[in-house]
């Protein structure tokens, strides 16, 4: 199989057009930054799904004029104006109606309550438990029993509300080594946490189903206090 490297890397590129590509790219990139600044957002972590859609639309409008000599900059500028106008209009109506804001932005989602995962949360929102555990570890959380409430915000950020040291209960560990030591049959009497919902209870040797979610995998629960 012979590969045409010239076609792969250069194609029909007219080198006299190279400087114009650089200039077009600077113009379009500057316009994207300007529009994002006008939106008032400071970072990606603050973006909702609606705002991500706006950025994708801006990227699509900016892409072609950067390298396509047949695509002028002015039509893209008109698209930019239309997008920011739409953004401002929708944002205005969102501030006037909580129901409309909920449709556009979504609602905060309770993920943990009283040291246990909220049942049915996966039916309402898709998130990877491993990613959620990673977020918890970054907040120096060792197990669910340290957390009174966790809320997944519409921006993708997670808000944690903690138990005081005196209130910490036994919970499902989120440290990889401890979480991966799953058991479907208990050998020693101890306090265990359900790997699915985080419900913790004292179990005797044998097989057990979680009385809360009916799952059958367990790990040894811990009740260490949070280090800050």
UniProtKB/TrEMBL annotation:
The chain crosses the membrane at residues 15-36, 48-67, 73-94. The keyword Cell membrane applies. Keywords: Cell membrane, Membrane, Transmembrane, Transmembrane helix. Residues 96-188 form the YetF C-terminal domain. Signal peptide: none annotated. Gene3D superfamilies: bsu07140 like domains. Pfam families: DUF421. It is found in: Cell membrane. InterPro entries: DUF421, UPF0702_alpha/beta_dom_sf. It comes from the Bacteria. It is a multi-pass membrane protein. Belongs to the UPF0702 family. This is DUF421 domain-containing protein. It comes from Chryseobacterium edaphi.
